[in-house]
Structure formats: C-alpha cells, structure tokens
Amino acid sequence: MSLLKSSKEVSRRTFEKHAGFYDSSTFINTYLDKWDQEIVKMNLPCPLLDMGCGPGRLLAKLQLSGNGEVHGVDITLAGLRLAGKKVEKSTEKYSLTKAQLEELPYKTNYFHSVVMTGVFHHFEKPELVLSEAARVLVNSGILIIADPYFPPLLRQFVNLMLNIYPITSDRRFYTALDIEKRAKKHGFVKKSMLVMPLAYILAFEKCYS
Length: 209
Prior knowledge:
The chain is of the alpha/beta class. The chain is 40% helix and 24% strand. The protein has one domain (7-206): Vaccinia Virus protein VP39 (Rossmann fold, 3-Layer(aba) Sandwich), CATH 3.40.50.150.
C-alpha cells in the first residue's frame, strides 16, 4: 500500500513545481526531441489532442508542421503557461486546457489523433486514461504512446520501489506488450512500434467492431 494518499495530487504538485526545469533541461529536451521528430514525421490527422502536453514541447512542433487543429491538455497551470508561450496564437486552431486526463472536457468522437509522450508511466489508473482516449477519438482514429523502456530486471526493481513508496510522480513502467494488451481492452489495435534507445513509440488504431 502506498504511503501517499493521492498519487494524482503528487503528480500535479511535482509538475507544477518542476515545469520550468523540464522545459529548460537540455538533456531532457535533447532526448525527447528524438521522439518528437518521429511523431511529427507521421503526419497525424487532425484535430489532434496532446494528452499531458506539459510545457508544450511536442504541441508546438505539431502546430508548426502545419497539419491543422491541435489541442493540449495537462494537469498543471505552470506547464500550460509555458506551452502558451510556444504555440502560434495567430491561429484559432488550438487550445490549452487544464484538466485531469481521466476526465477529458472534450466531445465524444471529436479527435482524429491522440498522443501521449512520456506520460503513461505517471498514470495511477491507466485504464481510465485509455478509456477517455478511446471516447474522444473517432473510429479509425490514431493513438500514439511513447514511453521510456527499461531492461526487465531494472524495470521490475524500479516498479517494486515505486509500489512501496512513489515519492515522485512516477507510478509504473510498462513493457510495450503490456500497454498493447491494456489498449486492446479499449478497442485499440496496434499498427506499428518503433524501438528507440531506452524508449518505444507505439501506434494504435481505434477499431471497434
């Protein structure tokens, strides 16, 4: 049993406090830029939702790629303020919204793409997040999940420590197969997987029968 009562609140406080660090860290942004380049190259259909957009790193790149309407949602105001400085405000084809990812304030079957980069391991209840992603996506919509990868023994050790005492916003690190199985329960079928150094990018299609 966790010693912390509300892991969602822990995540919110952590990212409110450290949003500026995540935004300015050369190491973090150099690492994540490799993910971003691959995702931008996918030319994902819009409208597009960046779930857990944080300081807007990927969101701004997607907007600049000119694919169309993009939206970002995050649990922190600090991250959204930083994101607001990056997006192009001369267009109305964007929005930044503060909300829990388990309860998205968007219409059902609205988005054609949803992306989650570096956030899946923060979710206390990933099933609820996947359910919401499925709800807001149109049929045949695309879901992209990019997350860190650890070798099996290291991942098991890290997850054991997080299960005992999640002192940061991290909750659990998953294998690509585990995420695929969870996503399948919500109507997603894996279309492709890109393996990168200590990370993977999974592409799913919403396929309800």
